[in-house]
Design brief:
Length: 103
């Protein structure tokens, strides 16, 4: 069990670094258009095989590097990962893994 916990801690630390790099790329791009942000997320996912990154903004805009486009009623602002990230102002929040039919 201790080995698994160490593996998980290592993965979380790596993902925190990945998210910090993505944040830096977004800031450095100085272009917050959908296409630019999508490309940043897509390239980050390619560099971290098996991971898909997505982001949401206060206006409800949602960008998913997997290409998934949510239904009109999807509200990312109510999702745990968004709510907790806002509550932790400026800190990275890691929620439970998302499991769907593909994963």
């Amino acid at each position: 069990m201790k080995l698994k916990a160490n593996d998980i801690n290592t993965w979380i630390a790596k993902e925190k670094q990945n998210l910090e790099i993505i944040t830096e790329r977004v800031i450095l791009a100085e272009d917050y258009e959908f296409d630019t942000l999508y490309k940043v997320l897509e390239k980050s996912g390619e560099m971290n095989y098996g991971n898909f990154y997505y982001m949401a903004f206060e206006d409800g805009t949602f960008i998913d590097a997997s290409g998934w486009v949510p239904d009109e009623d999807y509200n990312p602002l109510t999702r745990e990962w968004y709510v907790k990230a806002k509550e932790n102002s400026g800190q990275i929040y890691v929620c439970d893994p998302y499991v769907d039919a593909q994963t």
